[in-house]
Amino acid sequence: MGYHKIKFPDPELAQDGYLCYGGDLSCDLLLSAYYQGIFPWYSEGEPILWWSPDPRFVLFPEELHVPARLDRFLRRNESLPEKEKFVFTMDASFRAVITACSSVERPRHDGTWITPEMIEGYCDFHEAGYAHSFETWQGGNLVGGFYGVQLGSMFFGESMFSLVPEASKCAFVNFMRIFRSCGGRLLDSQIYTDHVARFGGRNISRSAFLRLESNYLYDQLDQDIASFYE
Q1: Which of 13, 46, 133, 173 could form a disulfide with 97 if both were Cys (CB 3.0 to 4.6 A apart)?
Q2: Chain CA centroid to CA 168, Å
Q3: 43 close to 219: Cβ distance less than 8 angstroms
Q4: pLDDT, tens only, 94-105
Q5: What would the 3-class secondary structure string for 84-95 be?
Q6: Coil, strand, or helix at residue 19?
Q7: How far apart are CA 113 and CA 109, in angstroms?
């Protein structure tokens, strides 16, 4: 597989989602974690904490629900003047996307879990070809987007941001439609979010998630997602 696999504790042993701590955010460790259904989530000043929640919040591409108002917005977008129109790209500005995500204020949370260490680790992961960003531009300005990790026919969503209404939602819907058409099987949102719930996300047990992951991680997409953004 081209990397040094690092064995984590059995994710089924996680208590309230928390599994273990320590290590670093090297590509080998991040890739090993994702292949075992585990991800990092911690705050600045803490050691790196590794998680495998139960239940797991996911979205199956065939269950994507696009609210009628947003669907109309996306269709209307195609006919807007260039300076008003949303333009969607992939991997055009990964560092800018993850940095913008780190500054988003989130209800009931102080500060951000996207630390400077996390930014550097995922930028390296992006350079290695595993982490990807999806951008929304308007009038030449970056106004929204999200980033995550793609392995096989799975996409692990990490975070998103929006500077103008609907920017991140439109990027997400555009991506999910492409992801499905490419043979994508599962989007992992890790834990419940209102945002993904609106689009049809639902909880499944950790055991079910790990069973699906064991198959989907080694699938090949029918078509490269990037080809739709060229």
Answers
A1: 133
A2: 12
A3: no
A4: 999 999 999 876
A5: CCEEEEECCCHH
A6: strand
A7: 9
